[in-house]
Amino acid sequence: MKNLLRFFIISSSIIICLSNSINITITCEYTPNFNQSTNTTTFYCFTKNVSITEKETNVVKIIELQNSTTKSFSSSKVTLFSINSQIVKYFPQNIDKIFKNLQTLTIRNCELKEISQKDLKNFKNLKFLQLARNKIVKIEKNLFKFNPKLELIDLFKNQLKVIDADTFDDLKNLNTLFLVDNKCISKQALSNRNEVLKLIQEIKINCK
Length: 208
Prior knowledge:
CATH topology: Leucine-rich repeat, LRR (right-handed beta-alpha superhelix)
Oligomer: single chain
Strand content: 25-35%
CATH superfamily: Ribonuclease Inhibitor
CATH architecture: Alpha-Beta Horseshoe
Strand order of the largest sheet: 4-1-2-5-7-8-10-12-13
Protein name: Leucine rich repeat protein
CATH class: Alpha Beta
Keywords: Signal
InterPro entries: Dev_Immune_Receptor, Leu-rich_rpt, LRR_dom_sf
Organism: Polypedilum vanderplanki (Sleeping chironomid midge)
Signal peptide: 1-19
């Protein structure tokens, strides 16, 4: 009887967990980007009509808008994913499983409340992270631990009050950092590694 009860409790937990998970489909307009130096074509995904208001919202399918791709298209060739001026209060889950080679990730003007290491963990090739005009209050410790290739981070016009002191220390390629119009700091460093290092020191003082 005890074993049966234990099984029931575990099963119930799984059902509750699944019921709390939301699955959505996203529509992408794909734009090809031809690189002459490498003679290769990659693709940019610009999303349409996205709405995410609950945590743990999983993107389970991407629909192409109006046959915008070519025969050479594959999801592994998508290097940019953009959600702009839509309602995305929480980071969309599973994007990393669909687009495994993203270099640019944009969630701009979407009311995004938070960003975590778990959200970014599998974007190993990420170079440009653009999260401007959202409602992020805190940048947690080791947020970018698994994104060592980051060159640009845009957090313009959020509501940042706390940024962990060591957040940016291991990002050796970071040369552009936008932090203008935040609570604890309002500065930027553009295409200059030395200026980024100075800004990081100010963050450690002002955003404890």
